[in-house]
Amino acid sequence: MTYIHLICGKRIPSSIPLIDLENMLDPKIFFRANRQLILHFDSIQTIEKMKSSKYLVKLKSREDKKFVLSEEKSKAFRKWVDR
Q1: Which residues, given as ranges, of the chain have pLDDT below 50?
Q2: How far apart are CA 33 and CA 36, in angstroms?
């Protein structure tokens, strides 16, 4: 099951797999952060550079929602954010 989390805190269930959602969304404003998460540009609250080219990303929707981007994804993420 896929859930779409809105900035307002609402969670909407979806039967569409993440890979299909990724293909339907505009890559200028959405980024596949990992195998569980697609980000909207406006959902990002803070980005912190970590050791070894990783980033800690905090989302606006929930105060406790943070995740670390892998080194593999970090270069593409930085390019996406800096556009």
Answers
A1: none
A2: 8
State the pLDDT at residue 58: 92
What pLDDT was estimated at residue 63? 64
6 within 8 A of 12, measured Cβ to Cβ: yes
- Containing structural domain, residue 27: 2-81
* Structural domains counted in the chain: 1
Position 53 scores a pLDDT of 86
Gap between the Cα atoms of 25 and 21, Å rounded: 6
Q: Which residue has the tokens 């970090």?
A: 74
Tokens coding 83: 């556009």
- Tell me what pLDDT residue 65 has: 81
Query: For every residue of 18-38, which 3-state class applies, written as one string?
Result: HHHHHHHCCCCCEEEEECCEE
* DSSP H helices in 1-83: 18-24, 71-81
